[in-house]
User: Fold these one by one.
Assistant:
Number 1:
Amino acid sequence: MEPVGDHVPEPASGKTTIACNLALGLGRANNLRTMLFDFDLGDPSIHTFLGLESRHSLKSVLTGRVPLAEHAKRIRENVGVVISPQPEPDPNKLILSDEIGEFLDGVQDMYKPDVMIFDLPAILSGDHARAFLKNTDCALIVALAEKTRFSQLDVCEREVAESTNVLGVVVNGCHPSAVKAE
């Protein structure tokens, strides 16, 4: 299992787009099983990005009241998505609960994904993204060109590195017209 969290210093940097595209791109490798989780529980958006719906809240799945098989969506033969169809009233309590670890262990045992991608809230917007990093092998940091300040990126990288490995940094929103050839 390679759980990957994606983190941004601040909201609206394109982390959900990166997470979805990463999951879909990995889905092209037929021998690689990938699962994408929308754990940005205060502002979930993977369901909108991918056009998915669910009758159940993610909380009902994480607490075992609804089986994951009834909630998860398959978007390719080897890509599954666990959405959060609406914001959770207390995302900190849910993401920091003991149920999260048990839920992830159960997912690993049952589905045996090769890669698990977690779309988490911006790292500088609260503590629960940082606390969740203990469940990941590495994190990909997403920054928005011309908006994310280097000081924010430095703080984000340092905080992520305290809990997990930094896989790298994606600079999102770079426009070819802004790059000058020499």
Number 2:
Amino acid sequence: MKIMNGNSLSSRLFAAAMILGLAACNTNQSKPEAETAPLKAASKAPEPVVESKPVPESKPVCKEEGKSKTKGGKTKSKAVAPLDCVPASATAATPVVPSASAAGHYDLSKNKPVTDSTKVEAGQGTQVKGLNDWQGEISGLPAANSRFTRLKIGMSQQQVTDIVGQPTDQGAYVTGKAFIPFYFGSDKTRWEMTYKGQGRLIFSNQAGFGSGHYLTWIIHNANESGYR
């Protein structure tokens, strides 16, 4: 039996270790990389920003400068810092033209009685607003049981005669507006109806080239003779 020396045994053991190491490397295959982690949930799209407009604040009414008296009796104006305010004149209420009620009555409390219809002037009565935005005037105070109280400014001639009947006298005349060049507005011509013991009704022509006339002036006069 042949005895192996120490160097030969060590060499063989080393070689065997190398062979085992290589075999282990071949069998230990590299593992595939893990799949990537799922992406984070997409962030929500930002909601549209609506720019809110500031609500305008109501401005205070401007105050007048204060005044104070000194010991000498002289009036001294007290300076007031300017404010972002609205002038007092701008807050004044716009005068409202009275209109007819459902019954056709107007407030004539400020009118004075008329005794002579030929001397009545425009502007002395009550300014009113009637049908279809017609502006008109009512002068005097109604006579007892007057049929004129059933009328409204803006009525046509036919509507008026259907209510109060035929006049005692009637006729037409022109106004100064008829002589204005290129004027095509209303009230160039008028039609007047007189009613004995009632008063007078004045109709104005409509704007443009129409031939219709509409009630624009009621003159109450219990002493009306009925003739123009």
Number 3:
Amino acid sequence: MNAPQAHAAGAERRLVELGITLPPPPSPFGKYVEAVRVGNMVYFSGMLPAVGHDLPLLGRVGEALSVAEGRKAAEMAALSALAAAREFLGSLDRVTAVAKLGIYIATVGDFREHPAIADGASELMASVFGDELLAPRVVLGMASLPLGVPVELEVLLEVAH
């Protein structure tokens, strides 16, 4: 096992150490699947700040929501992604890299604090998988997102065969 794989093997243990309880895995809000594996890559549908099928935070950051609430929404979306990954893979210990993290944020037009919100998702992933498995990320501001959520994540994971 190489160093990143050895580090990733502790993801489930780190969840316990951090006191993180994953929410119920998300369920689709339309006609799609949550994840598909192609080779050693797992592509996930857009991850919303959902708890199961409930959406507790709605609105645009800088309007209905503060930066702190937007950051919390990004963390919630990352927790949903981890729950979906665990359900799909059986264990987060199978993850060998977070290959990509796209963070889409519904904001008002002149908003500039996107990185502070995106860090809510990035920091959670780094806590669980370690900095050496952390992905490059794209952070974009949007006029609106599905169902009125403030954040949607795009997640691509590399997994062990």
Number 4:
Amino acid sequence: MGVAPIGPGGGAALQFLASVLEARAVVEIGTGTGVSGLWLLRGMRADGILTTVDIEAEHQRLAKQSFSEAGIASQRARTIPGAALDVLPRLTDGHYDLVFCDGDKTEYGAYLTEALRLLRPGGVVAFDNALWHDRVADPAQRDEETVAIRELGKQVAEDDDLVAVLLPVGDGLLAAKKVWTPEAGD
């Protein structure tokens, strides 16, 4: 299908994050064929719902098939076709426990902005491919995707309302917790 699924290390990290958060509501940007969705669903609460967004309807059809074959009840995965930056503004503010981003790398900065709006205080945003084939650490690499991921890392590091970690699993998984502040409520 031309999509590279998340590897077992990154998948296990997603499952762990969903489990630790006792996630009920998760957004996934980039459905692919459902591999990362399965990892997320396995870590989520039994009543949790995954909302997954992808521009390719065929990817979502295959993901639904993967979920079904894995025994995931159909009501636990909501697929929304469309461009992430068109779909995300329609989702509920402060409702989600986890937002996983594995879509268009040049849009990662915009995904972060949307994720921070969507996450509840204490929620986590995670980005796959944060090392981008070891290109991010090499300042000589100036292609659009590498620069966008590099800028995302700086943006996350400079945000005092985020506690971040870069996990060296797969192609890098950048995760950041939205800090709870009394002004933000419970």
